Amino acid sequence: xxxxxxxxxxxxxxxxxxxxxxxxxxxxxxxxxxxxxxxxxxxxxxxxxxxxxxxxxxxxxxxxxxxxxxxxxxxxxxxxxxxxxxxxxxxxxxxxxxxxxxxxxxxxxxxxxxxxxxxxxxxxxxxxxxxxxxxxxxxxxxxxxxxxxxxxxxxxxxxxxxxxxxxxxxxxxxxxxxx
Length: 179
Known about the structure:
The chain is 0% helix and 39% strand. The chain is mostly beta strands. The strands form four sheets. Strands 4-5-6-7 form a four-stranded antiparallel sheet, with no helix packed on it. Strands 8-9-10-11 form a four-stranded antiparallel sheet, with no helix packed on it. Pfam families: FXa_inhibition, Ldl_recept_b. GO terms for molecular function: Wnt receptor activity; Wnt-protein binding.
């Protein structure tokens, strides 16, 4: 799945399949300017920062179990969000501090460091990487991902795929080659 935020005409948090199909709103009320987004892949939770409401909230992948982690002045101007173990990590765009917040109760807000020009944060750790199983976009014997001549996108599950073409090309009737 692909998760993303939008705060154009109607602010929301959405998800869709990697090929863009099955687009679903998972949060569309009591939300103003969702910016940063992070996933708990193990427990299937979506965390986001709303910079207008000065809040960090969480919801499950289906849009249920929503609650506020932390709200208020101490978390103003946040950008970037990452989740690892019991904490959320984020960047304050005003003072460029890296903040750590307990994701279960919003307590223990700590400033860990200051980095010039920091706007995004990611956690790279072996335990955060899910095991890769065989999937529909694996390279075939001819070197084509999922048998697609240009781009292979996973669809509704890891066994299904959709082929797409680069700009200027059209997908052939076989659903795999680009002309």
